[in-house]
TrEMBL record:
It comes from Neptunicoccus cionae. The gene is cycG. PANTHER family: ALCOHOL DEHYDROGENASE CYTOCHROME C SUBUNIT, BLL4482 PROTEIN-RELATED. This is Diheme cytochrome c-type. Residues 39-147, 188-297 form the Cytochrome c domain. The chain crosses the membrane at residues 5-23. It holds the Pfam family Cytochrom_C. SUPFAM superfamilies: Cytochrome c.
Length: 303
């Protein structure tokens, strides 16, 4: 009887280990899904702006054309450790200059490195995974036009158990996967706004509160919450009186293009960077974002 129990226990361990290995295996695109997709660098420049790539990967404090030297190094302090934006310049040694289109697509859509390991979700791939392959191809084509910077990426400062990369597959199993925060019958303009906000703009990464292990609390979609770095709070951007309920569509459009609120305050901190990116988009995209925000469920500010 004891021997049978031991064998059953060992079988359970083997099955459990196999299940863990399956769940935590990094995902990648099937080659046929990426075949015959050609990128346009001019369109890619708009994807680059909408996705806010320079806001994280440019050297902190750089201005103008220097913001396109994507050497990384910016620090993001969280309760799980400090993460540093990597070099994503065209350096073959220190950046992504030798990456294929598939390498970039796997990183953006699944948080999977060219070596087949998991990236930390400080890189917002759980949002970018909703991006169309054609937009990733355009982004790839644009990145190829940018300079190489020979600056090594800084290592993340993450302690046990968060430094076990394989375990990130379990986190992805719980919180990754394509899907929208705003569902329902949307107009073409609202659908475009949803794509800009939820896929490229990754606004929920800051404006939606998180649970104890860092997953987005989708029941509080865009209701704001604590700043991950511990300084201040992220605003509620739902159409509730605690958020932007008093803002007209034109107020939102003006803010996205200039940074000025209806009260003549001005965007600061990280939002100032976001406005710098969004003002590069055409006016119809500003209108689409405003239409999307007005369709959100009004929620009181998350505490």
């Amino acid at each position: 009887m004891l021997g049978k129990l031991v064998r059953l226990g060992l079988l359970g361990v083997v099955i459990g280990a196999g299940l863990f290995w399956w769940i935590t295996t990094p995902n990648v695109w099937e080659p046929e899904a990426l075949a015959n997709v050609d990128g346009d660098p001019d369109k890619g420049a708009l994807v680059f702006a909408a996705a806010g790539c320079a806001s994280c990967h440019a050297v902190k404090g750089t201005e103008g054309a220097n913001k396109l030297s994507l050497a990384g190094g910016q620090a993001f302090e969280t309760e799980f450790g400090t993460f540093y934006a990597p070099n994503i310049s065209q350096s073959g040694e220190h950046g992504i200059g030798d990456w294929s289109f598939a390498d970039l697509a796997n990183a953006v859509s699944f948080g999977t490195s060219p070596e087949g390991s998991h990236y930390y979700p400080a890189f917002p791939y759980t949002t970018y995974e909703n991006m169309e392959v054609s937009d990733i191809a355009d982004l790839y084509a644009y990145l190829k036009t940018l300079p190489a910077v020979e600056t090594p990426s800084l290592p993340h400062e993450v302690g046990f158990p968060f430094n076990i990369r394989r375990s990130l597959g379990g986190w992805k199993f719980l919180f990754a996967g394509k899907g929208w925060g705003l569902e329902g019958d949307l107009s073409a303009e609202e659908t475009r706004g949803r794509y800009l906000v939820e896929a490229m703009g990754h606004c929920a990464e800051c404006h939606t509160p998180r649970n104890a292990i860092g997953g987005l609390d989708r029941s509080r979609w865009m209701a704001g919450g604590p700043n991950p770095d511990g300084e201040g709070r992220i605003p509620n951007i739902t159409p509730h009186e605690d958020g932007i309920g008093g803002w007209a569509v034109v107020d939102i459009e003006t803010y996205l293009n200039s940074g000025f609120t209806p009260e003549f305050d001005v965007a600061g901190g990280q939002m100032a960077e976001v406005v710098e990116n969004l003002k590069l988009l055409p006016p119809e995209d500003h209108a689409a974002i405003a239409a999307y925000l007005k369709r959100l469920v009004p929620l009181p500010r998350a505490e």
